[in-house]
Design brief:
Elements lengths: L1 H29 L1 H26 L4 H36 L1 H11 L5 H15 L3 H30 L3 H7 L7 H40 L4 H11 L6 H16 L1 H31 L3 H51 L1
């Protein structure tokens, strides 16, 4: 009788835990905008934390160290803005003025494509010409929300950085006493992976953007700087990013000459090979150790729940889940070993 009651109690506990997990996921989905901002703040703070720690060792107060890093990073961004943005805006304006020409040329080039693709391409000119004022206002609102979100991330990250291991302490505080040590260990692993991912992703984006810029200049493609900046941005999107980044360059090069279009395709094939076989294994895979299948599944889920940001954040979130699952697996093995010893 006692055994039966014990089984019922375990079953009830399991159901309760399952419902609790579902409630947490539901809350994350409902508050996904807030969740994404907190996650971005966490990633930024983990990326900057090692640098803050090094400065703090020199007897500089942590708050001052954070301010110094923010000021230095802001100065770098400002100098990059002065060097790159004016040229990019000029090139974007030129592309916008000639958009109908590029669309029509691209449509002509792809006339031999399958019928569904051809129909979609032929509709592009009318769709772009028909952009409404509402669309413009929606875009302007999106930019405003983006700026507000960016400032929020910087402010949250600042407060996370001022107190060392602030997030770990905050979360572990609510753990039962016998789980606090394990919780701290897991959160430190997650923080380490997030930091490695962020720094690795920034390095990849800068390297790929620079290689693209040099390659496009050598080939003689118009708007090389703007296209390279676009490639660097799309590099943040795992797996499909390089393809999305290369499409505009191929289209613009092809409107000049078919040969240029072919050369650009070859350029991005080489870049993709370098990225996939040399840069990503060295920078990302060793740090995170995630399989391609796991990454693809994470991307699909992220895209469905959070859109473009979900795609970009799929890898670090997937890495965090991987760490948690590994810890659960290790805990189960320890429990099983203890049961065998007790028996």
């Amino acid at each position: 009788m006692n055994n039966e009651n014990s089984k019922i109690e375990i079953s009830t506990t399991t159901v309760f835990k399952g419902l609790l997990v579902l409630v947490v996921f539901w809350m994350v989905y409902v508050l996904k905008d807030v969740f994404v901002l907190i996650l971005l703040s966490f990633i930024l703070s983990t990326a900057l934390s090692p640098l803050i720690d090094r400065i703090e060792i020199r007897k500089i107060p942590r708050a001052i160290s954070v301010l110094l890093v923010y000021v230095f990073a802001g100065l770098i961004v400002y100098l990059m803005f002065l060097a790159v943005v004016p040229n990019v805006l000029t090139q974007i304006g030129s592309i916008s003025q000639n958009r109908n020409f590029y669309i029509e040329e691209a449509t002509e080039i792809f006339n031999n494509a399958p019928d569904p693709v051809k129909e979609g391409i032929r509709d592009l000119p009318s769709k772009i010409r028909g952009i409404s004022v509402n669309g413009f206002l929606s875009g302007a609102l999106g930019v405003f929300n983006g700026i507000f979100g960016f400032i929020t991330v910087l402010v949250l990250a600042f407060y996370f950085l001022i107190e060392k291991d602030a997030i770990e302490k905050l979360i572990v505080h609510y753990f039962p006493e016998n789980y606090k040590r394990r919780g701290t260990r897991v959160l430190k692993k997650i923080s380490r992976n997030m930091s490695l991912w962020f720094r690795g992703q920034i390095a990849l984006s800068l390297i790929i953007g620079f290689i693209s810029y040099v390659g496009l200049l050598i080939i003689g493609v118009n708007y090389a700087l703007t296209l390279a900046v676009w490639v660097a941005f799309t590099e943040l999107i795992p797996i499909i990013g390089p393809i999305l980044g290369g499409i505009p360059a191929v289209l613009i090069a092809s409107t000049d000459s078919i040969n240029k279009g072919v050369y650009v395709i070859l350029l991005y094939v080489v870049i993709q090979a370098l990225e996939g076989h040399i840069m990503v294994p060295q920078i990302m895979k060793k740090a995170l150790g995630l399989s391609p299948v796991f990454i693809i599944i994470s991307i699909l889920i992220g895209a469905r729940l959070f859109g473009v940001l979900g795609v970009i954040l799929a890898v670090p979130v997937g890495s965090a889940l991987s760490v948690i699952l590994e810890e659960i697996h290790e805990y189960d093995k320890i429990e099983e070993a203890e049961r065998k010893i007790s028996n």
